[in-house]
Amino acid sequence: MRQADRGAEMVEFALLLPVLMALVLGIIEFGFALFAQASLAGAAREAAREMAIHNDAAQARTAAVNAAAPAVTLPAGEVGITADCPSAAGQVVVAIDHPYVGLTGWLPAGIVLHGRGVMRCGG
Known about the structure:
48% helix, 123 residues
C-alpha cells in the first residue's frame, strides 16, 4: 500500500455511507407501509365478515379496530360500512381510509392507506 493512498478507503466509506443508510431506511419504511396496508385490508375483511354474520355495525367496527391493532391505531370512525344485511345487493362493503404515519418521516404527508372488504350477507 502506498503512503499516498492511506485514508482513501475512509473517504470512500464516508461518501457511500449516507447513500447506503438512505437505501436501508427506505426499504424499512416501504416494508412498514406494506405491513400497515395489509393490516388495514385484513381489518376491513374482518369487519365485513362480522357485519355479514351478525348485522351489527358497532360490533363490526370493534372487530376492525381489534384486527388492525398490532400495526395501526385505527379509530372506529374511519371504518365505513355501506350496507346492512339483508341488503338489495346481498353483500356488505367495508372501506377503511387511514392516513399513513411513517417511521422515519421521509415520506410526504398526506399518504392515505385504503382497506376494503366485501362479503355476501349471511357469511
